[in-house]
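BUG: 3D viewer hangs when loading the predicted structure for this chain

Environment: internal workstation, default settings.
Expected: structure renders.
Actual: progress bar stalls at 90%.

Input used:
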Amino acid sequence: MNRVRLIVGPPRALAQWRGWRLGRFAAPRFQRLLLAALRVEVRVHGRPTAGSRLIVANHVSWLDIPVLGSIEPMTFLAKKEVGAPAIGGRLARLQGIIFVDRRRRRCIPAVNAEMAKTMKTGEPVVLFAEATTGDGGRILPFRSSHFEAVRQAAVDAAGTAIQPVFLEYSRLVGLRVGRRERPLFAWYGDMTFTPHFLRFIAAGQTRCDVHYGPPIAVSPGTSRKILARQTELKVRELAGAARAAKDLFSATPVRRRKETASAGDPICP
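Structure tokens produced before the viewer hung:
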């Protein structure tokens, strides 16, 4: 991973500093190389929309940034603490980050203005509206503070939308992930970055399914709390559909093997 960062990192940082358009397209390539080094496979379901957009996703791990960032150019809203770890902070800055100090609420309007400005340029902004990471098994209530940014963007950018996204770390070394395996990639509670990173590296190949939902049209007159609630419900719908499809897929082959096996064939449990 250090080799990937040393090769791609300096050109990306230079492009960010100079404001070159190359910087926008270098980030996804960097994240794809990084994920290959980390043995993370990303599968995308649905399609990213175009135009001024706020991407709202559930939040599971520090891995969420490279996973989403590998799909398309985007800027993330992140807590100031994300920039603290030596490795994680450098990776976050190379992707493109708007930092927010959640303990200083008076700074939120300025952060929202920066988010709106970024969206109006055509660069989507990613909001983890739970405002913290979870264990991957449930979605926490969405906070509405930063939905004000998409309302501001909608004033000047016609067609501004919210795109709900559900992230699911579904496979570990080819096997379905259960409750016992979630802490290997889910980063929450009092976990510290370096030990968690090393455990993840030792665990083996991981697959993350990224489910894009249909965009939600935004009107400047809609309250941020209504937008937050609508988006939360859509992400929960994506989660329910993804889990239902996974259960159906895993059950079907088992029934087929039992029905077609001959007396001498082994039956897989």
